[in-house]
Each structure stands twice: as C-alpha cells, then as structure tokens.
Specification:
The chain has helices at residues 2-22, 26-53. The chain is mainly α.
C-alpha cells in the first residue's frame, strides 16, 4: 500500500515537472526545491536542538 502511494507521488511530481517544463518555469521549480531543502534542514536542526535540551 505504501509503495503504491509513493509511486503515485512520484508520478505526480513528474507530471508537475513536465507541466512546468512546458511553461518554461523549471528555474522556479528548482528554486522551490532548493527552498524546501533549506527549510527541511532548518527543521531538522531545530528538532536536534530540542532533543539535546531534553
């Protein structure tokens, strides 16, 4: 079941990417990915900080 959901998510990502590619907005998509990665790193750092406190 989980594998099936992951496949659907990947298909969704690919469709989104192709749609943006058609619209010549890949740069925006890449910027968004970089932003999401930065935010995820911040959250991970905050979680580690909180774990260290407790």
């Amino acid at each position: 079941m989980l594998g099936h959901i992951q496949v659907l998510l990947v298909i969704n990502e690919v469709q989104t990417f192709l749609l943006l590619l058609r619209n010549q907005r890949v740069d925006k998509y890449v910027q968004l990915l970089h932003y999401n990665v930065r935010e995820a790193k911040k959250v991970t750092k905050e979680i580690k900080t909180v774990q260290n406190i407790f």
